[in-house]
Specification:
A hairpin with a 5-residue loop joins β4 (60-61) and β5 (67-68). α3 (115-135) packs antiparallel against α4 (140-155). The radius of gyration is 25 Å and the shape is elongated. The strands form two sheets. A three-stranded antiparallel sheet has the order 1-2-3, with helices on one face. Strands 4-5 form a two-stranded antiparallel sheet. The protein contains seven helices and five strands, in the order βαββββαααααα. The protein is 49% helix and 11% strand.
Length: 207
């Protein structure tokens, strides 16, 4: 499914009747004491027809709980769900790419700023939050969700420098008191930049 971009319906994975180039690997069934029978696999395809993942459903059941084959109607329904999931993945990728582009923009403006620095700050923040969250009884799911949002916001900590004059950013010597005050304004500019954001990843950025 991943390589062809086509969905697949299999009534019984242990008895595939058609002549195909693939077969079912029962190793996980043996390990988990689970019996896979029917399978529906659909590609996660974006608007430009790129496959970004695969969605696999196992063992359709009748109202009485008996394992039955998936239907063509099931396939059409799940394809709609798969399109929605693929679009969500695509949007998440776009958001992450935009974060990296903004970090690179700050790097172009400030010779002392690097994308590695931004990534390190993100990593430090995540590590600190992880320790704090576990110490204060925050649930595992909330810790994981918050860590990724916090990483994104932290990586954007210096993008406000794009509003600082080159004469200050690229000054070789020490800054005057007035120049230091101007430099510190980059935190304010960064906050203003994300005040109206709707992105979950960038929403904590102003704070």
């Amino acid at each position: 499914v991943a390589s062809t971009g086509e969905s697949l319906l299999i009534d019984d994975v242990y008895h595939i009747k058609s002549s195909v180039s693939f077969s079912f690997n029962p190793a996980y069934d043996y390990k988990s004491q689970y019996k896979t029978q029917s399978m529906l696999i659909v590609p996660l395809k974006t608007r430009d027809d790129a496959t970004v993942g695969v969605l696999q459903l196992i063992n359709a059941k009748s109202p009485s709980g008996e394992v039955i084959p998936f239907s063509e109607q099931d396939r059409l329904f799940i394809l709609q769900f798969a399109r929605s999931a693929a679009n969500t993945i695509e949007q998440a990728r776009l958001s992450q790419e935009m974060v990296l582009r903004m970090v690179e923009l700050a790097e172009l403006r400030d010779p002392f700023e690097t994308s590695n620095h931004a990534k390190r700050v993100g990593a430090y923040c995540v590590e600190l939050y992880d320790r704090w969250g576990r110490k204060h009884g925050v649930s595992e799911s909330e810790i994981q969700n918050t860590k990724e949002i916090l990483r994104t916001a932290a990586m954007l900590h210096d993008v406000g420098k794009v509003a600082i004059s080159d004469t200050i950013l690229k000054k070789p010597g020490e800054l005057t008191e007035a120049e230091t005050k101007s430099m510190r304004m980059h935190t304010i500019y960064r906050g203003r930049l994300f005040e109206q954001t709707r992105s979950a990843g960038a929403r904590p950025a102003p704070d």
